[in-house]
Amino acid sequence: MVLKHISIAACLLLAACDGGPDGPTAYEDMNFTQRHAFMSEVVLPQMKELFVEFDAKYESMSCATCHGDGASDGSYAMPSPQLPVIPATEEAFFEYLEDPEHARWGVFMGEKVWPEMADLLGVPAYDPKTAPDGFSCTNCHMVEGQL
């Protein structure tokens, strides 16, 4: 486990090598090349590990798994219309979670993916009181009516 954390730290340092004297470059300040390296060398391996732990079918996880057509056209735009669209209201979302498969995914996303992605990107996770602009489901998933 310690080796894993050292490896992650080394990748983060390498991905943000142009950070200057004040430390690594924040993801939002990275240029396209830095972001691509960071996503390929740090985010993809970390997310793949989480997803494979959740379901072995993600062993072949690639950039296209999350970015859909954006991985092919080089835009990597998010949110991705190829990911499941989530309900637009809190009430509809809770109804959506009544389906056991949606609930299973909701727990996985809420407990594993969401906090890990916020951490990897160095941004706060969404919290309506403390981080209303923080990382949330809608950074990756489109909301009904958004298409």
How is this fold's topology laid out?
Elements lengths: L1 H14 L16 H23 L8 H5 L1 H5 L16 H7 L3 H22 L26
Describe the structure.
By secondary structure, this protein is mostly helical. Helix content is 52%, strand content 0%. It contains six helices and no strands. The protein has helices at 2-15, 32-54, 63-67, 69-73, 90-96, 100-121. α2 packs antiparallel against α6 (100-121). The longest helix is centred in the first third of the chain and has 23 residues, at 32-54. The chain is globular.
Summed up:
This protein has 147 residues and is mainly alpha-helical. 52% of the residues lie in helices and 0% in strands.
- Structural class estimated from helices and strands: mainly alpha
Average pLDDT over all residues: 86
Q: State the order of secondary-structure elements, H for helix, E for strand.
A: HHHHHH
Low-pLDDT runs: 1-20
Distance from N terminus to C terminus (CA atoms, Å) equals 41 Å
Taking the sheet with the most strands, its summary is: none
- Shape descriptor reads globular
Strand content: under 5%
- Helical fraction: 40-55%
Number of strands: 0
